[in-house]
Amino acid sequence: MRVKTILVSQPEPASEKSPYSRLKEKHKLKIDFRPFIHVEGLTAKEVRLQKINFADFNNVILTSRNAVDHFFRITQEMRYKVPDATKYFCQSEAVAYYLQKYVVYRKRKIYVGERSIDDLEAIFKKFEKETFLLPSSDVLKPSIPESLDKMGVNWTRAQLYRTVVSDLSDLRDVYYDVLVFFSPSGIESLLKNFPNFEQNNTRIAAFGNATMKAADNAKLRIDIKAPTPETPSMTMAIEKYISNLDK
After folding, report:
1. Position 139 confidence tier, pLDDT thresholds 50, 70, 90
2. Backbone φ and ψ of 223, nearest 5°
3. Is 141 exposed, middle or buried (0-12, 13-18, 19+ CB in 10 A)?
4. Which of 15, 29, 152, 246 has its CA 20 to 30 A from that of 118?
5. Looking at the structure, do residues 95 and 182 belong to the same domain, yes or no?
6. Range of the domain at 218
7. Backbone angles phi and psi of 143, in degrees to 5
8. Are 164 and 37 in contact (CB under 8 A)?
């Protein structure tokens, strides 16, 4: 069956030149974007129950834009002024760039990895006697604590926000040829919103091993997988699938 409609379980890209736009134009597709999950900040009271003293940490590890937002949100709510001398260790350039929303970049000590925490290992070793704070959600990728422990980083986790299933009830009678997922939480949201979901001819696209495992556990058929050596991005995987159908 041909693919005409796709629902991506993420926010719509800000740029009109995103790979999805090119995919849409090339194959005359209808591509909609709808987050299946969203983030809610913990209250100051909930954070205080974790007995974390922000003043004990001169170093902050930031793995996402959500982590940046909620670190500064909660410190403001708790009336804690983040010292100018605080050092920030950002997982990627995108996170470091986003940090400029809250700090004057050139006046802060900011260390940036290319894509992962592991890229910062040499930097962490320079501060091996110092303590680090890791702002996170209630769901933390196992690879992050594993990497920090392996590198010998003295770190403490602060849960500042949680991942919540979005209400998708308005999609109950809407059909898409392909549903695209990027996390196990997205699969969970699908099943919670539509407990009687029957896949039938709907194609499932899954990005990453954890997402694929969640789909398998839910007994969903995965038709499109990424990343692979041949298709490192989701849009490339979708395009390959569509092209094969057209042969």
Report:
1. confident
2. -95, -25
3. middle
4. 15
5. no
6. 5-36+168-246
7. -65, -25
8. yes
- Buried/exposed 149-181: b ≥16 CB within 10 Å, e otherwise: eebebebebbbbbebebbebeebeeeebbbbbb
Q: Say what the pTM is.
A: 0.78
The CATH number that applies at residue 114 is 3.40.50.10090
Radius of gyration of the chain, Cα coordinates, nearest whole angstrom = 20
Tell me: do 55 and 17 sit in the same domain. Answer: no
Query: Nearest-CA neighbor of 75 among 97, 36, 48, 115?
Result: 48
Domain count, the chain: 2
Q: Could you give the residue ranges of the DSSP H alpha helices within 28-64?
A: 44-48
pLDDT given at position 247 = 67
H-state helical runs in the chain: 19-27, 44-48, 65-77, 93-99, 121-126, 143-150, 184-193, 209-217, 234-246
**Range of weakest confidence among 52-56, 75-79, 116-120, 130-134:** 116-120
Query: Length of the chain, please?
Result: 247
d(CA 118, CA 99): 20
Phi-psi domain of 77 (left: phi exceeds 0; alpha: psi -120 through 50; beta: other): alpha
Q: Which residue is it, tokens 């979005």?
A: 166
Task: Specify the residue for token string 């499109």.
Answer: 224
Interval 15-20 mean pLDDT: 87
